[in-house]
Amino acid sequence: MGGHFGHGHDVHDAAPVRGRALRLGIGGPVGSGKTALTAALCRALRDELDLAVVTNDIYTTEDADFLRREAVLSDDRITAVRTGACPHTAIRDDISANLDAVDALEARHPGLELVIIESGGDNLTALFSRGLADRQIFVLDVAGGDDVPRKGGLGVAAADLLVINKTDLAPFVGSDLDLMASDAARVRDGRPVVLNSLRTDPAATEIAHWVRAAVGAAHAAAS
Ligand SMILES: Nc1nc2c(ncn2[C@@H]2O[C@H](COP(=O)(O)OP(=O)(O)OP(=O)(O)O)[C@@H](O)[C@H]2O)c(=O)[nH]1
Ligand SMILES: [Mg+2]
């Protein structure tokens, strides 16, 4: 598969990582829960994996500041990239600032196994370049409307894992979770979908499990 997503987005399995950390992109629309998920993953995985985070914000360093305030990792493991007006450009086209940030983290922490890169909140087509992220998670939330998975878009269709977040809010916003899950499954060719609520499962159990498996597989393939 691959070509029909167009625009040079080569959808394929990531190459095994050799002597470096697995790079995990977390993308999705504004406010869907990317930073909250990043924080949850850091808490869930930091005792078993050597990890660090890069955040992308348009004008501020707010997401990095939040992660530092929450002390999910030590400060020297959290780096902010300021993207300017087009956050998708920094993860898709001109990825150099993000690559520099990852390189600096790897230089500072030689045993690094996982770098989580949170994109700035953006539209439904903002996928990470494979030159930046080995694996990527796309985060939607139920409050954005239950027709979003049906409308598709690269993030929904092609991310390695689709997370439909804030399921606790579904009754309040009238979103049909079954419909969202089945619409997503239809465009995703068997790639996984997780329904998640960080309110009812602050440890993001299923997603942490998926990340753990991805890191394990990448390092096993490289050794
Ligand atoms: N009810 C509910 N709220 C959530 C959940 N996950 C995140 N939130 C809240 O949603 C808001 C936005 O979350 P963030 O993690 O900042 O979202 P984001 O995608 O990083 O936002 P940007 O970086 O600005 O695009 C915060 O107030 C979170 O506490 C969830 O599962 N349920
Ligand atoms: Mg954020």
Number of strands: 7
Relevant CATH superfamily: P-loop containing nucleotide triphosphate hydrolases
Query: What's the average pLDDT?
Result: 91
**What structural class should be given to the helix and strand makeup?**
alpha/beta
Classified by CATH, the class is Alpha Beta
Shape: globular
Write a concise keyword list for the protein shown above.
Rossmann fold; seven-stranded parallel β-sheet; 9 helices; binds guanosine-5'-triphosphate; binds magnesium ion
Provide an overview of this structure.
The chain has a single domain, classed as P-loop containing nucleotide triphosphate hydrolases (Rossmann fold). Residues 1-12 have low confidence and may be disordered. It has 223 residues and is of the alpha/beta class. It has a 7-stranded parallel β-sheet with strand order 3-2-4-1-5-6-7, with helices on both faces. The chain is built from 9 helices and 7 strands, in the order βαβαβααββααβααβα. It binds guanosine-5'-triphosphate and magnesium ion. Guanosine-5'-triphosphate binds next to helix 1. Facilitates the functional incorporation of the urease nickel metallocenter. This process requires GTP hydrolysis, probably effectuated by UreG.
